């Protein structure tokens, strides 16, 4: 056992503050990672604040982790000291159910083990996340990170990246497809980058005209303001695919209306009840609405390789560990372009 | 022009009553049909009562039509006098858009022409439906009916049949699939028959325990009472496909919960706003909900051929034309097993 520095909460009420946690000794298949950077995901805030009612304290958030391998277990073949690696939202699963066998560990029938606030199936210990100087993870859940990328901006790929890459990849988006990305935030800005890189004609769909310029800077071919009924009518029935990243309750009927016959809108943001969907929105045109949750480990590696090849990273704002509470406030207020990343050096240097 | 007997309404307020309408002369591609039977569809009632606000009076309902060819135009090659034929919900479409080219005339980009209350694109005349002794229809929209079936019970196949066959066929239901049919009415009872004939393990899902016996008589392997939470839990995540025939607003979340990962529920009944769907119902398990509308002419012919091969017809209750208003009341009260069919001989004999 080693004791390391981490940022976490001792209870639902406590602010995030520096604490010390015990990290387990490495097992034969484990990879111990010195953390360089960790992204700040909306889920971190929900977990720290126990918004979902399932937090176990002490709790160390963080599941967009980039670091270098410090040590490997005796049976680890694919990683060695010094390798640049990443850890995303999962650190374990049963590895034997049909979902795991299909490389979709996020849908493990026994439940995937979250990078924090989970219980490791193999060690039976609680998991602590990436707001920390170190983490130890089973090799099957460690990802190779291409060295050519701006590595601090790679961190958000491990959650925001795979969440948007996976549906575009699974629904086979290809050159010439007309793809709409609904909502421009941490997820949406990655959706634009991926859809553009896949060769799609990519339209940013947003309620806010003031986001148009930034959407184009990110690569969107065009912007569609969803409150403009005339513009929405012009685009009716023309989209091959919609990636809906809106994280809150909203009315999806106007977006379904944009889809071509037999086309799909995939929801990745809103884990809550939506406004009533009209049956006719699906029946007329045999349309589909689906959901998608992060992505499996194999696909996450494919996503990182794709990013290496196309030089894709997240747009980030770097913060010191001590500024995390302020960052949480700003994320809650949608005031970040588009992801905060913690420079973990700032935690090492804290007294 | 010929003048024929029909049952229809002269205005939104009027009851259905016998009237005389003019049928157009046959064009070179037309088939004139002596109507033997016509099914009574829920849509007929909505149209007669102008529930959808788009009725043009006088209006003759009926789009589940079975009859024999009386006369054919000079260019009709596929039909001859005496052939047993059917006409469903459409009698025309543009026949040149991408939907029509894909044999999905129901999604014609210029709008399909309804069998009644529509405007024929080629003749520019209003269409009148099957509550009538005769109808004249473009040959491309006339279907061959297998002679081996109980023909009076074939009529509802032209709407209720294709509406349920099409999604099961399109989503490729096959032997061994576990299929749930939600709701037991005119659509649901056909859904059971088709799913069983396709080799699926077919479960009737209903709120009403008193429907269990009849569902089994129709061929369902089992019945799941959706109000029984313990039973619903047992079936969680086990269905390959759900065909949702419920025609009214309802909560689809409990049904989505029954689907396997990546599986689909198709809505065919509810053309109205549903209860709020939870984003998580789709995101957890990458599930899908889709819609489906009747079926194209090619697929409708496939459905009729499939019925001929598997000896599938609708369960019907025969009525005389004069009893139509009572039948409308009973359909509205869900008091029919499972489809009324008008014996058109009863109209011919009326004074």
From TrEMBL, chains A, B:
* PROSITE patterns for the chain: ADH_ZINC (PS00059), D_2_HYDROXYACID_DH_1 (PS00065)
- Which InterPro entries did the record assign? ADH-like_C, ADH-like_N, ADH_Zn_CS, CAD-like, D-isomer_DH_CS1, ER, GroES-like_sf, NAD(P)-bd_dom_sf
Ordered alphabetically, the record's keywords are: Metal-binding, Oxidoreductase, Zinc
Query: SMART domains from the xrefs?
Result: PKS_ER (SM00829)
Task: Quote the Pfam families the UniProt record gives.
Answer: ADH_N, ADH_zinc_N
What would be an example GO MF term here? zinc ion binding
Keyword Metal-binding (UniProt): yes
Indicate the segments forming the Enoyl reductase (ER) domain, all copies.
Answer: 8-342
Cofactor(s) required, per the database record: Zn(2+)
Q: Does the keyword NADP apply?
A: no
State the family named in the UniProt similarity comment for this chain: Belongs to the zinc-containing alcohol dehydrogenase family.
Q: What is this protein called?
A: Alcohol dehydrogenase GroES-like protein
Q: What is the lineage of its organism?
A: Bacteria, Pseudomonadati, Bacteroidota, Flavobacteriia, Flavobacteriales
């Amino acid at each position: 056992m080693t004791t390391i520095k981490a940022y976490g909460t001792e209870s639902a009420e406590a602010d995030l503050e520096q604490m010390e946690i015990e990290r387990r000794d490495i097992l034969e298949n484990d990879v111990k990672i010195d953390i360089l950077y960790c992204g700040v995901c909306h889920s971190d805030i929900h977990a720290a604040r126990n918004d979902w009612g399932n937090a176990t304290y002490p709790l160390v958030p963080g599941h967009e982790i980039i670091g270098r391998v410090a040590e490997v277990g005796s049976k680890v073949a694919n990683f060695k000291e010094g390798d640049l690696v990443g850890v995303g939202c999962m650190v374990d699963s049963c590895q034997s159910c049909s979902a795991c066998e299909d490389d979709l560990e996020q849908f493990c029938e026994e439940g995937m083990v979250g990078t924090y606030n989970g219980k490791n199936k193999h060690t039976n210990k609680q998991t602590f996340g990436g707001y920390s100087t170190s983490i130890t993870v089973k090799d099957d859940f460690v990802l190779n990170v291409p060295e050519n990328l701006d590595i601090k901006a790679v961190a958000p790929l491990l959650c925001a990246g795979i969440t948007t890459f996976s549906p575009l990849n699974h629904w086979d988006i290809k050159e010439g497809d007309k793809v709409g990305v609904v909502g421009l935030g941490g997820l949406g800005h990655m959706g634009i980058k991926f859809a553009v890189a896949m060769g799609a004609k990519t339209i940013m769909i947003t309620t806010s005209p003031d986001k148009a310029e930034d959407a184009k800077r990110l690569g969107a071919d065009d912007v569609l303001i969803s409150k403009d009924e005339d513009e929405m009518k012009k685009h009716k029935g023309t989209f091959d695919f919609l990636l809906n990243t809106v994280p809150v309750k909203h009315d999806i009927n106007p977006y379904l209306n944009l889809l071509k016959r037999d086309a799909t809108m995939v929801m990745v943001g809103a884990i809550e009840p939506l406004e009533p969907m009209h049956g006719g929105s699906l029946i007329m045109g045999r349309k589909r609405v689906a959901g998608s949750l992060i992505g499996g480990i194999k696909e996450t590696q494919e996503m990182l390789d794709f990013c290496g090849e196309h030089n894709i990273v997240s747009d980030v704002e770097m913060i010191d560990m001590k500024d995390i509470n302020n960052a949480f406030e700003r994320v809650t207020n949608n005031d970040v372009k588009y992801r905060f990343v913690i420079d973990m050096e700032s935690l090492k240097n804290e007294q």
